[in-house]
């Protein structure tokens, strides 16, 4: 789904009938479209309402809009998205939400409480309609991309990453949810999600779920969240009467202790001692290569790390 308002403008300009039906370029024209919009909403003509919303949206942004016009377009898109999702018009609601973010991107709005609060409102409206979680994820992914460009966090705003992870989780997309939980700075919730996902796998792989995520967090140099997630996940396993005295559980515990200090030799010995357990998943070796580089300045291998680039970019 396109979120580019300029593409929308080109599409509108290419429609020959648009010139004949478009309202005049003044306040009375806007009021006329607004009246038609209200009538269409009252009649349940949501397709017609969407077209009117987009007409008004583009009218506010025609030419070189000033700050006031940009704000009007943003507020209209917000209002439209909230209204449409309330009426379970998920595709149309997502389109208008994406147009709101396109204004943020095109006019370089910063990541602050005002801009994020509008995103929170749309998120809250969609959360009440869990059947539309996949649509919500489309919108939030665009919001995260915007925040990575205009904000101070190159992998995207952690709060928006968390909202996106939750949307994917609700949609049952565990793989994408995990990519965004990595950057959400909420390891306790990540551990809860990880435990839930592990119930869908083989009992023999409960320890692999933990090892993969802890090593991913460590590859991002997030030792704090790796420790918190490990403790929370192990506690949940104990509560569920799962065995925790397993090689990878032990490896993760010793690795976290080792990385707290300058102990390169112990880091290398650990990998040798647990080589058999680590060989169960080839990705673990790649993560450990990155960890060795980040924590101990080891030279990275000449290949094998390109698959990790998406993780480092914020899952986008």
From TrEMBL:
Major site of localization recorded for this protein: cytoplasm
Keyword Cytoplasm: yes
GO cellular component: cytosol
Subcellular location: Cytoplasm, Cytosol
Nucleotide-binding as UniProt keyword: no
PANTHER family: GOLGI TO ER TRAFFIC PROTEIN 4 HOMOLOG
Protein's name according to its UniProt entry: Golgi to ER traffic protein 4
